[in-house]
Fold:
Amino acid sequence: MKRTGKKQSQKKPMNAVIGERVRAYRKKAALSTTALAKQMGITQAQVSRLENGLQGWRMVQLVKAADVFQVPVPLLVIPQNVREMTFTFTNDTSKVYALPEVE
Structure:
């Protein structure tokens, strides 16, 4: 089989994508991993593993992280190329969320 010299695009695992997004929100909120862990009710080591994509995210952890950052859960799990999202709520109000830059 011949190689063409082109690199195949590799998608990041979803755990890593979520971890990067959570890290960006954590830094935007000026929280340490220890402070975030305390607010989420988990250890600092777990936060580190989650942010680095080494551990899978459970729904309860996503909900707790979203609560800490006061954002809807979908903002933590959307693709990296999305920069802004608008949510319309049941009372017909809308809110636009700008996503923090992921390093």
Observations:
- The first helix runs from residue 14 to 28.
- The first strand starts at residue 84 and ends at 88.
